[in-house]
Write a structure and sequence with these properties.
About 40% of the residues lie in helices and about 10% in strands. The protein is built from 16 helices and 15 strands. The termini are far apart.
Length: about 575
């Protein structure tokens, strides 16, 4: 039995026989803490999975320097266990520490004025490693260097994408961009929310990103590295637009997933698959945002080109308002199937209104307005809200702003009710990105109101991601003592390097698919908050994805900026 299978079996047995019990032998994994640490003036809380009364903080020499009581344990139905809170927020002296209960101590952590800059850098640099069709050179990638694959200069028009101008079997050139997830596909809907989120971090944390040096090939030019990286994907997205009518192909993939081999070893033909309304609207939204952004950096010609592409995609969607993605029988890669376009119309309308100022877009926007919800690739209305409320048009939409703040306040109420101090009350596929996107909304609420309670709540979200969760994992590779080592990612699975590329977040626990590692004998808990395994086969919990990393970029950057001001 592998170490991962053994851990998964142990986790299952724990969920059955230990979680929820008041008496069990305390271990390090019962002390749940942010494994990086806490900014000096931040809220500092750990969770203790045991019925005990007191804790202490010890310095790096093992000397006790802080003692306090643990709150009464509370049970969480989603994890099956009970946890109490150890609050040491009043400890502000910088240093390296551990939290101890009955001589059992946590992983070490830091308290310092600046802690999340490296995380912000690594989570953003993950996109450099995901670049398609280029060599990742040692100068920039370190030991994670490899030959590029998928030049995508002769991509085949699939039957579903064929028309008179581009018949079945003809080819187009669509190079560049980022690999979407653990596979080698490139998908417009997921690229859109990802690129938009990165551009929003640039807009709202501009000074930080202007100083950021990622050591990528473009570093040192006149643009911030985050914009250079976004342009890599934006330029690919534009190749996915049919110049004859403005519609967007949904995805570029092989017909079936490649094996776990390096990009330059793949030989399967690549296709663009049908045009869809969701891809076209998401593209229009992202390009409208990108046009406004690049113009700020003096790239007027590119801004005009991108704006024109956004308008063409918009008008294609107007003519084709209900083209849902329908997975062809001979294609089995990620479908990204959506069932409603109301939120896409709202997002696209909002971005086009900000781009043009034309009333037609404002009218379309209000026709499709719905109450905000935490964003994900198929629920995007909050993206339009954020763009509007952080723009010069904000004061035209005071009622919408009230709705946005009310939604974030509701998340804070959920957090108060949660033993694990997070707003999330269900575990979907990619649950860690939901936590990150919750944090993004809270940081936007802070920017709108100036109320620090939203930052404290966003800190809880980052604490969860970095180890203060029911699995005890810091879900970001290379950041913490217990981190994923065997992610579902073809490059990391085939590169022959033991350590994963740093800065990648795992999708996170859920029970949507419990059988992805069944053939390997891996058993997972039926409690969704602990149903996670650090095993390559677990595409449902341990895969990487560009849209999951994007809110981590926003959250880690935003918190680092807040504590430095």
């Amino acid at each position: 039995m592998t170490k991962h299978n053994l851990f998964s079996l142990t986790l299952l047995l724990a969920s059955i026989s230990i979680f929820g019990c008041s008496d069990h032998l305390l271990t390090q994994d019962d002390i749940l803490i942010n494994q990086i640490g806490y900014q000096t003036n931040a809220s500092k809380k750990a969770l203790i999975r045991a019925n005990t009364e007191r804790f202490e903080i010890r310095d790096s020499a093992g000397n006790p320097i802080f003692r306090d009581v643990i709150s009464e344990p509370r049970k969480w139905e989603l994890s099956g266990d009970e946890v109490g809170v150890a609050d040491f927020s009043s400890l502000t002296k910088a240093g390296e520490y551990s939290l101890c209960v009955d001589d059992v101590c946590s992983y070490p952590f830091y308290i310092a004025p600046s802690l999340y800059g490296d995380l912000a850098d690594a989570s953003l640099k993950s996109y450099y490693y995901a670049r398609a069709g280029v060599d990742i050179e040692e100068e920039f990638g370190g030991k994670w260097n490899y030959k590029g694959g998928h030049p995508d200069t002769e991509v085949i028009i699939h039957t579903s994408a064929a028309d008179n101008n581009r018949p079945e079997g003809s080819t187009i050139s669509s190079p560049g961009g980022w690999y979407d997830a653990g596979d080698y596909g490139k998908y417009i809907v997921n690229s859109s929310i990802t690129t938009w989120t990165i551009l929003q971090s640039l807009r709202l944390n501009k000074d930080f990103h202007l100083e950021q040096d990622l050591n990528i090939p473009e570093s040192g030019n006149e643009l911030p590295d985050i914009l250079d990286e976004a342009l890599v994907n934006l330029k690919w997205m534009m190749t996915m637009q049919d110049p004859n009518d403005g519609g967007l192909y949904h995805k570029l993939t092989t017909k079936n997933f490649d094996a776990f081999i390096m990009p330059d070893e793949t030989t399967n033909p690549r296709y663009v698959v049908m045009k869809t309304t969701s891809a076209s609207l998401d593209f229009a939204s992202t390009m409208a945002t990108a046009s406004r952004t690049v113009r700020e950096y003096g790239m007027d010609e590119l801004a005009d080109e991108i704006a024109g592409a956004a308008k063409s995609a918009w008008y294609w969607a107007i003519e084709n308002p209900t083209i849902f993605y329908d997975q062809p029988e001979d294609v089995s890669t990620g479908a990204y199937v959506d069932t409603s376009f109301v939120d896409e119309w709202f997002w696209a309308s909002a971005e086009m209104y900000l781009l043009t100022g034309e009333s037609q877009y404002k009218e379309k926007m209000m026709e499709n307005y719905e109450d905000p919800i935490t964003p994900k690739w198929d629920v995007v209305n909050a993206l339009g809200l954020i763009s509007i409320l952080t723009s010069e048009k904000r004061f035209e939409f005071s009622e919408i702003e009230q709705d946005f703040i009310a939604y974030v306040d509701l998340m804070l109420e959920k957090e108060k009710a949660s033993p694990y101090l997070i707003s999330m009350d269900k575990f979907a596929w990619g649950s860690n990105s939901d936590v990150g996107n919750d944090g993004m909304l809270k940081l936007v609420a802070f920017q709108l109101t100036g109320n620090d309670k939203y930052v404290a709540s966003a800190q809880n979200d980052l604490d969860y991601i970095l180890g203060r969760n029911a699995t005890g994992y810091s879900f970001v590779t290379g950041f913490g003592d217990k981190t994923p080592l065997d992610q579902h990612n073809r490059i990391m699975g085939a590169d022959g390097i033991d350590e994963p590329i740093p800065g990648y977040i795992s999708g996170g626990p859920n029970t949507i698919v419990l059988t992805d590692c069944e053939a390997q004998g891996v058993l997972r808990s039926e409690f969704p908050a602990v149903s996670f395994t650090d095993t390559q086969c677990s595409y449902s919990t341990n895969e990487t994805a560009i849209n999951w990393n994007a809110p981590l970029v926003f959250l880690s950057t935003g918190l680092e900026v807040y504590y430095q001001e």
